[in-house]
């Protein structure tokens, strides 16, 4: 392979990206050395097994990926804003919509949600950490390795260009001969293993580590949603693992599972992909429902209406999510019977989802609604997501889908589901739980300003796409001619996209502003909220709870405040905590290099790093690490300091 | 409260767009029975969905107006409500009814558009094989023994059955004003039924992303009056060159082509992947030989079609 094939060349934008990557990757170590922060970084962050810090790292990485995916989106909108535009060529555009999809779903939405899960779940169930803290660090570093591997494809070797669904035979070696889709299969494989481990970890955590008295039906709704989500992860991700492994074999080892010759089946890939891909949609949407349930109930100052039916409907959604996958390809030519069955199962999902919408509305009814930033996102979610929901029902009708399929109508629909659903939820959750983690609040004024920018611009960006779709504009077209008449609405959509970008810039500015100027007078429960995470200090001490609370009902913290009865009793005892470990980050690095060399089929170094991965596993098997104890004295010191700080202000 | 107004504004914008302007949206401007069936199915579903949106938006507005903290007494304490069995049954049952209604509509319209329209029940469909390759469409007429590239002519007021397959990535054959779309794949043949009520020219395209040249993979579908169609076929047969296997291989390799017309078709030497040629029954390189035989059967079938036509 020649150097000019190794590096992507010929595009000014890519050279600029290369320069910025080099600058950033030099600037970080230089800054760390100058500020003498290497040790701090290693001890406090890279080797941490603390669920809160891992959660923060997930969210930071997700914000970074939101930036990358957002730039992709802006480029796409800019390219299609006017007919016959020459900003990007076809190949470049194809790479950009592929990476936009993959990054936004797998490296932005999922890690953001897993990040919030990490921060909140142990606190919400009154636990001191997750069930397997070190495995949790492994999950994060595998996700991070996968994300970085996927991103360097932009400058080294070329990005995948067969769409985020990578349909065969288009994604086969025959039609996609660059290494782009090797990046796809390997980066997703590595990150996917991390996600699967997260699924197992949180399943065990929620089943086994709840505070005394917290029965399943007394769990906060976010915990319920995460429990169900992780069940879906455990069932759905192995399908992705297998599909990606077959893809790697097809592309790099000459097998013919999905190829056109020798009886390979292109439809098999589509089926495997969506058997994972549809549950994946619910993996990112159910926790969002949980976040909204917490926020709506907290700021309506009322318990969640219809708790039981909320749980039942999530269970129903999770089951249905596995029997609807063929609605992604009604047009593949299976008969009326198959399409009808999948139409009905798909429409059936609207029933439990509708139940949830009405329960939220009735939680608000008779409430006392205060319009905080997180609440405003939750309130905007209801009307906007309902549009996404009803258009979903329309798409579920097989005959009608013959006209919507592959059009901008579909694109508008899933953005109307995923943005008010998942993205608004993670931003709302970010504002809501930020003071819990850092001990100070994000600025409300800036928060609301960015809220208005994001919500209005979102509708301006995506509503026109419904109309374009009904007018026959297909997705993934890098250009169109003026005679189609698609120009004006695409331009409108571009204007909205710029507004969205401004909204997100304001959000990031808010983080910066609040770190510098926000008052540090947090008392641990700034929103006067309901669940257990608000019963401990902010910022949360590493052991979470000095004394484990005892729970006798849902919203126990709320009732404890009202009735003046504390949730904890007894005296401090030494707390057993896990030790930090450098092994997960080393393993993540080894996976990154293994993946990189695998992408280029450079077998020797790939084998070497494969051995390193196995070595880290073997080392762990023989390692004796029984954790450590935090002494009573240290607990007292920490607790007094945290309490003292509050009194001082 | 701005949200509500935005939502309402957007909603009325759609209503206006759908209610008819001079240039109706392509999907709502059908020119054949299949597309008309889908168009009315979509309009029906939009009406139902508008009803649902209306209920949700009214509830939402009332709740947000009535129960905002700024409008309530400082000492107002929201009640503790576990839920209400009957309300919850109602908002489960009504969606169930809606889904049942939509299911009936879906099953019936899906089976309607998946076959020859009842309007033309007395006519045998004209079979045209449409195959895609990067990034073109080949149309083979077994009945007439001709072939075109990137345009297709057929008689109006007659059922047409397109049989679809691909010499490469999955593509989706779509003439929005005549029918919904269907995938064309390399290892099997799918079929799609449509007819045009009037002579006219319609935009057809591949709607499924298939690589670099995808955006330009369009073709013109033209329905002609019976005489015009017969005259066109006659012209093609007398003036166009024969399609040889070499020429066809060249066509497959070319990335973009204009229109081409031939007085013979590729089905004779490269039959479609159906029946014995389907991708899922054979496993070796000998398939090439097997395909040589199957050609005859296709031709026999074509003969039958022709006799019906007359």
From TrEMBL, chain A:
Cofactor dependence: ferriheme a; Cu cation
Domain Cytochrome oxidase subunit I profile: residue ranges: 34-552
Keywords carried by this UniProt record: Cell membrane, Copper, Electron transport, Heme, Hydrogen ion transport, Ion transport, Iron, Membrane, Metal-binding, Oxidoreductase, Respiratory chain, Transmembrane, Transmembrane helix, Transport
Main location: membrane
Localization in the cell: Cell membrane
Co-factor binding comment: Heme A3. Binds a copper B center.
Transmembrane regions: 12-35, 56-76, 96-123, 135-156, 183-204, 224-247, 311-330, 342-364, 376-398, 410-434, 446-469, 489-512, 582-600, 606-622
SUPFAM superfamilies documented for this protein: Cytochrome c oxidase subunit I-like
Membrane topology type: Multi-pass membrane protein
Pfam families: COX1
Pathway: Energy metabolism; oxidative phosphorylation
Catalytic function, reaction form: 2 a quinol + O2 = 2 a quinone + 2 H2O
EC identifiers of the protein: 1.10.3.-
NCBIfam families xref list: QoxB (TIGR02882)
Function: Catalyzes quinol oxidation with the concomitant reduction of oxygen to water.
Family: Belongs to the heme-copper respiratory oxidase family.
Entry protein name: Quinol oxidase subunit 1
Organism: Sporosarcina aquimarina
Protein encoded by which gene: qoxB
Automatic annotation (TrEMBL), chain B:
Principal location listed in the UniProt entry: membrane
Residue span, Cytochrome oxidase subunit II transmembrane region profile domain: 19-117
Localization per record: Cell membrane
One Pfam entry name: COX2_TM
Residue ranges of every copy of the Cytochrome oxidase subunit II copper A binding domain listed in the record: 123-235
Entry superkingdom: Bacteria
Catalysed reactions, semicolon-separated: 2 a quinol + O2 = 2 a quinone + 2 H2O
Membrane protein topology class: Multi-pass membrane protein
Basic and acidic residues: compositionally biased ranges: 267-278, 290-310
Keywords carried by this UniProt record: Cell membrane, Electron transport, Membrane, Oxidoreductase, Respiratory chain, Signal, Transmembrane, Transmembrane helix, Transport
Residue ranges of the region described as Disordered: 262-310
Family statement: Belongs to the cytochrome c oxidase subunit 2 family.
Protein name: Quinol oxidase polypeptide II
Protein species of origin: Sporosarcina aquimarina
Lineage, opening ranks: Bacteria, Bacillati, Bacillota, Bacilli, Bacillales
């Amino acid at each position: 392979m020649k150097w000019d094939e190794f590096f992507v060349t010929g595009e000014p934008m890519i050279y600029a990206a290369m320069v910025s990557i080099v600058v950033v990757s030099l600037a970080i170590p230089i800054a760390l050395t100058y500020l003498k922060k290497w040790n701090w970084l290693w001890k406090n962050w890279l080797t941490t097994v603390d669920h809160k810090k891992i959660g923060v790292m997930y969210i930071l990485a997700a914000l970074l990926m939101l930036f990358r995916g957002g730039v992709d989106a802006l480029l796409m909108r800019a390219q299609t804003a006017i007919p016959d535009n020459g900003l990007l060529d076809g190949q470049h555009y194809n790479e950009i919509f592929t990476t936009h999809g993959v990054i936004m779903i797998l490296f932005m939405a999922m890690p953001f949600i897993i990040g919030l899960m990490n921060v909140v779940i142990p606190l919400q169930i009154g636990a001191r950490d997750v069930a397997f803290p070190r495995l949790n660090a492994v999950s994060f570093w595998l996700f991070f390795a996968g994300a970085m591997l996927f991103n360097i494809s932009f400058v080294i070797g070329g990005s995948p260009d067969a769409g985020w669904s990578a349909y065969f035979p288009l994604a086969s070696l025959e039609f996609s001969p660059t290494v782009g889709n090797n990046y796809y299969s390997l980066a997703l494989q590595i990150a996917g293993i991390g996600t699967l481990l997260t699924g197992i970890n949180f399943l065990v955590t929620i089943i086994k580590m709840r505070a005394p008295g917290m029965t399943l039906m007394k769990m906060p709704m976010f915990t319920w949603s995460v429990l169900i989500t992780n069940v879906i992860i455990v069932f759905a991700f192995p399908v992705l693992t297998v599909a990606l492994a077959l893809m790697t074999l097809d592309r790099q080892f000459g097998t013919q599972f999905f190829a056109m010759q020798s009886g390979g089946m292109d439809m098999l890939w589509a089926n495997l992909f969506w058997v994972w891909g549809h549950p994946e949609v619910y993996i990112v949407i159910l926790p969002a429902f949980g976040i909204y349930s917490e926020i709506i109930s907290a700021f309506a100052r009322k318990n969640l209406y219809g708790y039981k039916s909320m749980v039942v409907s999530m269970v129903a959604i999770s089951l249905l999510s596995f029997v609807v996958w063929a609605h992604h390809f009604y047009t593949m030519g299976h008969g009326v019977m198959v399409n009808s069955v999948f139409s009905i199962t798909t429409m059936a999902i609207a029933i439990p989802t509708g139940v949830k919408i009405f329960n939220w509305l009735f939680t608000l009814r008779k409430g006392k609604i205060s319009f905080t930033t997180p609440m405003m996102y939750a309130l905007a979610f209801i009307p906007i997501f309902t549009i996404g929901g009803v258009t979903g029902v329309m798409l579920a009708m097989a005959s009608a889908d013959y006209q919507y399929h592959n059009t901008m109508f579909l694109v508008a629909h899933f953005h109307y589901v995923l943005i008010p659903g998942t993205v608004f939820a993670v931003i709302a959750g970010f504002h809501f739980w930020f003071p819990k983690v850092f001990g100070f609040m994000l600025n409300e004024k800036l928060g609301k300003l960015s809220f208005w920018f994001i919500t209005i611009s979102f509708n301006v960006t995506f509503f026109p796409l419904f109309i374009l779709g009904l007018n026959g504009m297909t997705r993934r077209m890098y250009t169109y001619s003026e005679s189609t008449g698609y120009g004006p609405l695409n331009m409108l959509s571009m204007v909205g996209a710029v507004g969205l970008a401004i909204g997100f810039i304001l959000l990031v500015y808010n983080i910066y502003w609040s770190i510098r100027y926000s008052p540090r007078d947090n008392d641990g429960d700034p929103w006067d909220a309901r669940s257990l995470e608000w019963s401990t200090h902010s910022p949360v001490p590493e052991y979470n709870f000095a004394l484990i609370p005892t729970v006798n009902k849902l919203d126990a913290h709320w009732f404890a405040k009202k009735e003046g009865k504390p949730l904890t009793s007894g005296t401090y005892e030494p707390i057993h905590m896990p030790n930090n470990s450098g092994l997960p980050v080393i393993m993540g690095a080894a996976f990154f290099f293994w993946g990189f060399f695998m992408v280029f089929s450079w077998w020797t170094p790939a084998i070497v790093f494969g051995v390193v991965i196995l070595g880290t596993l073997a080392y762990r098997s023989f390692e004796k690490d029984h954790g450590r104890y935090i002494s009573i004295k240290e607990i007292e010191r920490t607790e007094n300091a945290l309490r003292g700080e509050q009194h001082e202000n | 409260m701005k949200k509500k107004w935005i939502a309402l504004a957007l909603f009325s914008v759609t209503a206006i767009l759908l209610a008819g302007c001079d240039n109706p949206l392509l999907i709502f401007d059908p020119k054949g029975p299949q597309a008309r069936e889908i168009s009315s199915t979509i309009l029906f579903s939009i009406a139902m969905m508008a009803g649902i949106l209306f209920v949700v938006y009214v509830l939402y507005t009332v709740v947000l107006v009535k129960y905002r903290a700024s409008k309530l007494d400082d000492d107002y304490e929201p009640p503790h409500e576990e839920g209400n069995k009957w309300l919850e049954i109602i908002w489960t049952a009504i969606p169930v009814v809606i889904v049942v209604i939509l299911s009936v509509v879906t099953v019936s319209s899906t089976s309607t558009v998946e076959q020859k329209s009842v309007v033309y029940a007395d006519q045998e469909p004209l079979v045209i094989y449409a195959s895609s390759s990067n990034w073109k469409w080949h149309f083979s007429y077994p009945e007439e023994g001709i072939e075109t590239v990137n345009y297709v002519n057929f008689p109006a007021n007659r059922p047409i059955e397109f049989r679809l397959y691909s010499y490469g990535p999955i593509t989706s054959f779509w003439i929005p004003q005549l029918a919904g779309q269907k995938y064309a794949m390399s290892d099997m043949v799918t079929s799609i039924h449509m007819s045009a009520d009037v002579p006219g020219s319609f935009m057809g395209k591949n709607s499924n992303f298939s690589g670099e040249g995808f955006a330009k993979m369009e073709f013109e579908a033209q329905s002609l009056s019976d005489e015009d169609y017969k005259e066109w076929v006659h012209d093609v047969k007398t003036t166009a060159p024969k399609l040889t296997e070499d020429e066809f291989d060249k066509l497959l390799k070319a990335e973009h082509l204009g229109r081409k017309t031939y007085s013979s078709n590729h089905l004779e030497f490269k039959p479609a992947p159906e029946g014995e040629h389907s991708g899922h029954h054979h496993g070796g390189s000998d398939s090439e030989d097997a395909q040589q035989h199957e050609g005859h059967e296709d031709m026999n079938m074509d003969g039958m079609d022709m006799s019906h036509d007359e």
